[in-house]
Amino acid sequence: MTSPIAGGVDCDLHPAVPHLTSLLPYLNDYWRDQVTTRGMTDLVSQSYPPNSPISARPDWRPAQGKPGSSLEDMKAQALDRFGLGYGICNPLFGVQMVFSEDMADAFCRALNDWLAKEWLDQDARLRGSIVIPVQNIEKSVAEIERCAADQRFVQVLMLVMGDMPLGKRIYWPIYAAAERLGLPIGIHAGSNYHNPPTSVGWGSYHIEDYVAQAQAFQTQLTSLIVEGVFARHPKVKMVMLESGFTWLPSYLWRLHKFWRGIRMETPWVDRAPLEIVRSNIRFSLQPIDAPPDPATLNRLFDHMQSDELLLFSTDYPHWQFEGDQVLPEGMSTDLVRKIMIDNPHATYGRLRQRVNQETTP
Amino acid sequence: MNIQFRTGVQQDQLAETKTAIADCDIHPARATRTELYPYLASRWHGHLETYDKHPYQGMMEGPPYPKAQPNASRRDAYPPEGGPQGSSLSFMQQQHLDPNHVVLGVLNPLATGQGLRNHDLAAAICSAINDWQIEKWTSKDSRLKASIVVANEDGPTAAAEIRKRGGDKNFVQVLLLSRNVEPLGQRRYWPIYEAAEEVGLPVGVHAFGFGGNPITASGWPSYYIEEMVGHSQCQQTALASIVLEGVFERHPKLKMIMIEAGFGWAPSLSWRLDRSWQRLRSEVPHLKRPPSEVIRDHIFWTTQPMEDPERRDHLFDVIDWIGWDKLLFATDYPHWDFDEPSRVLPAGVSDANREAFYLNNARKLYGLT
């Protein structure tokens, strides 16, 4: 077994909001009244049905409540277990599904305040991602600016499937704010289900939705690259979270071939897609969509032609690996160090900054 | 072009041009707008003049994303007698079939009745296209073989067309497109698979098509390149649907061909399916085997546009993972991203694998040995 090294950065932890009503203390009177008077249901996305096998590893499933809702469990099962120096919290509460811009904004503010108070304040290793009301760009930028005052927020979080491709110009103020404030954009698996969850329509099964996350990441990467996001914002980093990465080499071969053939359509793309990926795009380690034999995996690492693309993740509490085998067999010590320490620190600039007396935003 | 293709290409080219090849993706076109009318009931002539084809997209003329070149085709492929690229048999022979030693050419007509909202019109045009392929192409050149095109959204009608044509040796496959109203594993398409298995023909799934769904799971992108690259993601989800719905459990003799959508993604998709199936198989109890095994046993891949990594050992890794016996050479003639037969395979391939790649796999699959 390849052993983790101490002081690593886990770039994909999922603390769960126990219920929408858990956010009531963080909502203003109007929204608190709306939630209760209208009998709003919990915002659980069908991307991760709580009882689905992928939503929690069997031995990480709590006796009651949602997987990932207990800090004590997260400490014992992930932070302490893998000797982590930092863990980045990416809440997957279904605020992106909401259609009202104002409601989404209120819920995002509450969610971010909840994360700071109930998680970041409770364990000094934890860092947070800013969940934004992507339904409204101005409100998203305002929320990024509000939360960024707290240095413990180290990235902006979006979902891979939404209303429009992420490279579209309408989203660029979000990327400008992130670049200005030194925050990578984390793009996590999941959909708001405002479009069919595949590009060929609605499938029958949860497993299809899950498999299709990888294809959604591919189309988003195309959009981000060809729209010119990285020509306009060369310093912005994006992290593909729970995306898988074994699709990347062959995807880039194809994109590169077409870019070479029809780059006159998008002349502002002034660097080859592979170069853009090397400088601006990172991928979380889990899930590893590859056979368990080290020989094949090492060929895949060779196909990626860079050891700087991967960032360590457990994807806690999602079920991606057994026991302590979070790192695949046959990884070199150098690569482990890059993935667990060097690459995350190079990506998340805010990890280097000393956090003084933490305050809830 | 792969940098490693360049060394010694001249020598290779001389050797290659003597090799007989199968081209599993040739696109025949109509020379005139009304060329199909002789094969259509007169009721449809007036209908087409009045309402046109009414597809699952908004543009009356042309594609939603403007292509990179007219008709997405080579500028040197216009026939001397006029008409669009791919519309003249004699010019196709002169420009492609003869010099490239094509001994088997599979026709994949794209502008057919597929993807039309009026399903009666769809069926009429598809049937007309099938007659036209024989009369204009396969009856005039025995190297060419036709594809049965069907009204894809109307399973029973499509199945009837397959059964009607299935015994005709001019046809070597049933042709679907990857983008439909629903993912291709859905049961509205099952009658197509049932009929194809019954008549013993493989089903080719060509990239493209219209089913009303945006070409990403996040809505419509801005550029043609996104559509072009996106076809491989459409194909991946369409194939995932076919496997996860258990199409091959129901039709164990059925073979399918993924056409013009790449093959480099096949290993990673298979691994992702396997991993997800290990966790979630209780949701799909009809699927009895690991998806990667199903894909290996049932799926073939055409090569164009050829995966083109910087390093040829990466290409060979991927082909080893898929199997040299599963690739079918294709040029996509007369489209602009045509793959030149003499240049697609780098040096370092065994003679047996080279022959399988260029010809023998196709002959075997299509029963033309």
Keywords:
heterodimer; A: 361 residues; TIM Barrel; disordered C terminus; B: 369 residues; alpha/beta; eight-stranded parallel sheet; 13 helices; 40% helix; globular; disordered N terminus
Give an account of the 3D structure.
Chain A has 11 helices and 8 strands. With 361 residues, chain A is an alpha/beta fold. Chain A has an 8-stranded parallel β-sheet with strand order 1-2-3-4-5-6-7-8. Chain B has helices at residues 3-6, 9-16, 42-51, 89-97, 119-138, 155-165, 190-199, 224-244, 247-250, 266-280, 291-298, 312-322, 351-365; strands at 21-26, 102-107, 144-149, 171-177, 203-206, 256-259, 299-302, 327-328. Chain B starts with a helix and ends with a helix. Chain B contains 13 helices and 8 strands. In chain B, α6 runs parallel beside α7. In chain B, strands 1-2-3-4-5-6-7-8 form an 8-stranded parallel β-sheet. Chain B is globular and about 55 Å long. Chain B is of the alpha/beta class. In chain B, β3 (144-149), α6 (155-165) and β4 form a beta-alpha-beta unit. The chains are: A alpha/beta (361), B alpha/beta (369). Chains A and B meet through α6, α8 and α10 of A and α8, α10 and α12 of B.
CATH class of chain A: Alpha Beta
Number of helices of chain A: 11
Distance between the terminal alpha carbons of chain A, to the nearest Å?
A: 42 Å
Report the β-strand fraction of chain B as a percent range.
5-15%
| CATH-scheme architecture of chain A | Alpha-Beta Barrel
CATH class of chain B: Alpha Beta
CATH homologous superfamily caption of chain A: Metal-dependent hydrolases
Round the Cα radius of gyration of chain A to an integer and report it.
19 Å
Query: Got a strand count of chain B?
Result: 8
